[in-house]
Amino acid sequence: MGGKRKDYINWDEYFMGVAALSGMRSKDPNTQVGACIVSDDNKILSMGYNGFPCGCSDDEFPWEREGDALETKYPFVTHSELNAILNYRGGSLEGTKLYVSLFPCNECAKAIIQAGIKTVVYDSDKYDGTPANRASKKMFDATGVKYIKYIPSGRKITLEV
């Protein structure tokens, strides 16, 4: 007997992978972001990705990044973190952990704090230093929400279906 296999993925790899896979559902041509909310005993509670609210057609609402405000995606798109929070149907998210592929904006940070999520594990922080990013970190610091940069193992994880 050889014992259990040794090359299984760890919890962070698993949950960040679920967040990344969720982000692949986004129809946004420029930015695909996914989120996964996890209980303290490593159970997936909810997932989300960036997209339009239910009932708002992906073919009729704009995906543009520039132009008049109502001709861009920004007033309409719901971010992955907020979608994950709103998709949860199980009650309180107090004390949970959120895995997300992009550091939360200030609007999502407010929702994360209000939902009671206590830890954010993020992959990319490409907007580091911008006013919205600084506001998120200031609110997280003030409320004790920990934010931790995901450190990839370097291992390639592939999915064949």
Description:
By secondary structure, the protein is α/β, with parallel strands linked by helices. It is 27% helix and 17% strand. It contains 4 helices and 5 strands; from the N terminus they run αββαβαβαβ. It has a 5-stranded mixed sheet with strand order 2-1-3-4-5, sandwiched between helices. It is globular and about 65 Å long. 30% of the residues are buried. The model has no long low-confidence stretch (mean pLDDT 95).
List the helices and strands and how they pair.
Elements: H1 11-23, E1 34-38, E2 44-49, H2 80-87, E3 97-102, H3 106-115, E4 119-124, H4 131-143, E5 146-149
Helix pairs in contact: 3-4
Record keyword descriptors for this entry.
161 residues, alpha/beta, five-stranded mixed beta sheet, 4 helices, 27% helix, globular
Radius of gyration: 17 Å
For the report, how would you describe the main beta sheet?
5 strands, mixed
| Average pLDDT | 95
Question: What's the shape?
Answer: globular
Helix/sheet category: alpha/beta
Number of strands: 5
Unreliable stretches (pLDDT < 50, length at least 5) are none
Order of helices and strands: HEEHEHEHE
Question: What would you say about this model in short?
Answer:
With 161 residues, the protein is of the alpha/beta class.
